[in-house]
Design goal:
Distance between the termini: 53 Å
Shape: elongated
Number of helices: 10
Order of helices and strands: HHHHHHHHHH
Largest sheet: none
Helix content: over 70%
Length: 193
Amino acid sequence: MKVSRDQMQANRLRILESASRLFREKGFEAVSVAEVMKAAGLTHGGFYGHFDSKDDLIAQAIAHIFTAEQGDQGDQSDRGNLGAYLNAYLSSWHRDSVGEGCPTAALVADIRRQTPAARLAMTEGFRSQIDRMARAVAASGAAASRRQGVGAWAAMVGAVVLARAIDDPALSDEILDETRAWIEGNLGRRSQA
């Protein structure tokens, strides 16, 4: 049975959404193509109509995650509310919602073992996040904004990675809270809860 072009696009999006969530939850190696297709509600045989290989799916899923994330969050400099972004990113919800959260914090340790295409997709995602942070901090001068954007982004990702890695809820919350306070103090801003 022939599938329409619109249905093919919808199926591809379902595959990317399912893969994106599963890869963030479990890591690249622990997720099979069959598992992705099942989560998307499709048969395994249809996979190769959309992707050349699992490696191709990984690279495209990473790019998809960052594209979707940019659409969801918008430009921090346009929103003008870096504090709200910090509160959302450095939250217990984000820490606990690995499959729906930031691809950087979820996949950063696994990406170095992936293909050049996957690493390029992650690199482009990092660039977009750093650029967004640099615009949001708006320090005096482009170099200062970039430096503060890189530092804030690295601290945020590191805090979430650390908060997810430990089994002490109080220490985990402290890592998130103190990182947020440290960033706000260094950027001279206070969040609006």
